[in-house]
Structure formats: structure tokens, C-alpha cells
User: Fold this.
Amino acid sequence: MKKLTAAVVATTLLFASSAALAFHCPADMKKIDEAMAKNPKLSAAQMADVKKFRAEGETLHKAGKHQESVDTLAKAMKILDIK
Ligand SMILES: [Cu+2]
Assistant:
């Protein structure tokens, strides 16, 4: 019985964290889009990187790879200096 409870708790936590991540990606993409709309002072190379990471993040999110998406979007956010 204890084993079953532990399994249920583990599954619930896993689900909750992946659901939180699934919500995380669109929030990060929105922040990136908002920062980009403000014409940030970036070099052409940095702009290209931000756009690349933003596109990759969206692709990963749609593929269900939320952790990778969050990590990729974080790189774009770092360039834009946003959190
Ligand atoms: Cu996602």
C-alpha cells in the first residue's frame, strides 16, 4: 500500500512539473516577443541568435520537449537580458 502511494505521488509530481513546463514555454516566448517588439539594442548576430532560439524553442514545445524548449528559450532571454 505504501509503495502504491509513493508511485501515485511520484506520478502526480511528474505530471504537475511537466504541465508547469508546458505552460512555461509560451510564457517565455511571449516575453521574448515583447522584448523584440521594443527594438532591443542588439547586434545583427545577436538578433539572429534570438530569432533562432525563439524558433527552436517553439518547435521543441510543439514536439512536447518542454524542458529543452525552456532551456533554448532561456538562451534567447539571456541575450535579451530578460528573465
Ligand atoms: Cu512547452
